[in-house]
Amino acid sequence: MSDAAPRETVIKMYAAREEIYPRETKGRYASLRWACVWLTQIVFYGLPWLRWNDRQAILFDLGARKFYIFGVVLWPQDFIYLAALLIVCAFALFLVTAVAGRVWCGFACPQTVYTEIFMWIERRIEGARSARIRLDRQPWNADKIARKGTKHAAWFAVALWTGFSFAGYFTPMSTLMSEVSALRLGPWETFWILFYALATYGNAGWLREQVCKYMCPYARFQSSMFDKDTLIVTYDAKRGEPRGALGKAQGDCIDCGMCVQVCPTGIDIRKGLQYECISCAACVDACNSVMDKVERPRGLIRYSTEQALARGWSSAQVRARLLRPRVLIYTTLLALIGGALGAALALRTPLKLDVMRDRGAMGREVEDGVIENVYRLQVMNTAETAHTFRISVSGLPSIRLATTDMTKLDGASARAVAVRVQAPREGAKTGSNRIEFGLTAVDDPGLAVTEKAVFIVPKQ
Amino acid sequence: MADFVNGFWDYYISIITLLSIFGCGILLWSQSKHRVKAGAGATTGHVWDEDLTELNTPMPRWWMWLFYMTIVFALCYLVLYPGLGSYAGRLGWKSAGAYQSELKQAEAEYGPLFDKYAKQDLKTVAADPQARQIGERLFLTYCAQCHGSDARGGKGFPNLTDSDWLHGGEPATIKATIMHGRTGQMPPMGAALGSDKDIENVAHYVRSLSDLTTDPIKVAFGKTKFAACAACHGADGHGNQALGAPNLTDKVWLYGGSADTIMETIRKGRTNTMPAFEAFLGEPKVHVLAAYVWSLSNENGGEAAK
Q1: A123 in contact with B at a CB cutoff of 8 Å?
Q2: Which of B36, B58, B151 is the closest to A15 by Cβ?
Q3: How far apart are CA A381 and CA A389, in angstroms?
Q4: Are B293 and B151 in contact (CB under 8 A)?
Q5: Pairwise CB contact (< 8 Å): A214 & B63
Q6: Rounded to whole angstroms, how far apart are CA atoms A74 and A78?
Q7: How far apart, in whole angstroms, are the C-alpha atoms of residue A232 and residue A305?
Q8: Which of A32, A145, B12, B285 has an alpha carbon within 20 to 30 A of A66's alpha carbon?
Q9: Which helix (H) or strand (E) holds A171?
Q10: What angle separates helix B196-209 from helix B216-225, to the nearest 10 degrees?
Q11: Which helix (H) or strand (E) holds A444?
Q12: Which residues in chain B have Cβ-Cβ distances shorter than 8 Å to A210?
């Protein structure tokens, strides 16, 4: 660099993406990742096909505002459970990140999983890393067109199936199947299938690591959950350096570049922890296989912590650091919220009652100085079986229902029941009196709810 | 569109909107390249917290194109939809139009059901449990504010569950009431009857018609003055449904049956309005509603509408 007359250079603030050609890896972590791919995709593609009492086991019916999840039917009033579920997911992510860094990213994130599937297709059609680089550099010819065309067609087929499966969570699969075969898809279903398919195709086919590097919000704040005892993919510089070609090297690293070639985000892990690293451990597998070949111990690149590397800890010592306050606090919170959510769901009564006093009259006097109030009971039977319910009222001496105390509801339905409640003036104070409505299933006394209300006694 | 007090604001808003959009574009374009001194290194030169520096790593290029696309999107949106002052947009979209299309959709979905009932006789509809359920929902939505969820009314609002009708309780009459509304007029009769004493006497006579506790002397005096009331309520006080004049001989009171309340009614008169629902609900819905209301006081066919 010459520091002559200060010349100006132009720096572009935006640069084109450089294609990354990750080499295929084999090993412990590659198998683990494929296990995650299988597991998550069997769940995702398979769930919409499951049946439960002659309906789809999992169905989010937005039109009817009912979410069916196996034996549970959730109504809009149950939205709190979704909030709790999201909190549980968030804390689970915090905990995993604090313990083992971005393993979610490397193994289970949909972005990684679909990229893995798409790269597998790519390898089958275009060949291994070197063949892919060659293919991209050669001019267009029949073979290149055929290979590229086949690849994109295969990608799109997988993407469409993914979009179709996604739509199957919201429109019953049976309906969806018949609509597709008759080419009579509704506009929204068409939109969502294509949208989700395009998103899958674009993210896993074209954007890949760019999603993790530039778009993902989790990637932005993950470092706030890291500490010096978080497991990260590390290069043991003490052992590896100074690197050099085989035979000339003083350290164990023979500078073969395998760890760079397999990296899906295109970084060199030997430069230390970088924000692009998604903890997928492809470089660990690659380096271990090289170390086996050159007959050096494995683990030149391995999962370890900043502290462990600096102080040369054994893995047992690393494990001992697991029980640190950050991890314990995350675990406690996760257990508490998860337990609360589980308990709330287990103890949930599939019956809801809202009471609305008629505002037209504050309370009227009928025969013999008895006071009467009118209420509208919104009864919601969220179970899937029909029930007959008995309505009861309590809270004042001789309070009684003047209307029928029975109401019959079909499964998963709601109705408004107008009831008149009578109580003598004696024993009630002028103004508002607290009373309570009860609702009990005739065939199942355990199925019961109560709801507070107010009984108004007018001035004489 | 009278959204603005004068044409100036139209231009004011439009110009600010467009300038902002183009400003974003110019900012983006001007900032996409940076001139730096050669050899300035890979960082921007800023330093925070003693040793924190910012790399000059470029952003991906598609990111910039996304920004430009948002600008194109904004301009297309402003052409198609209302957004620039009072310009209505090429598509002519209105929130009122969106509401109308929702109504049309509901009409298409539920119309056939109501049309089926509209062809049936009111009493047949009243015997149909599904129709009664629909009627109940309509009643709770549109009628319960005045007549109560239990349809028993309140002070000034008739009870629809008894057999006492101001205008008649035949299904067709009830339907006419809901369709076209009713106005109940009791004129102030204080001046016609004379003194306060006379009014009190008449009130006692009216109470005597329903066998309520009264002062026999006042009743005797009141009876002579009742001729002024007989024009509408009939000589015997049985009322007249053609005029909507209440029957004074039953124990049903629209405003209350105490002597004081009756005296006030005589002195000041009463005006009562049942609004017309034909334009708002349409005949098919009113048809189902009328059948439901009639069924409240005529238990027939199947279980009573609870």
Answers
A1: no
A2: B58
A3: 10
A4: yes
A5: yes
A6: 6
A7: 6
A8: B285
A9: none
A10: 100
A11: strand A444-457
A12: 60, 62
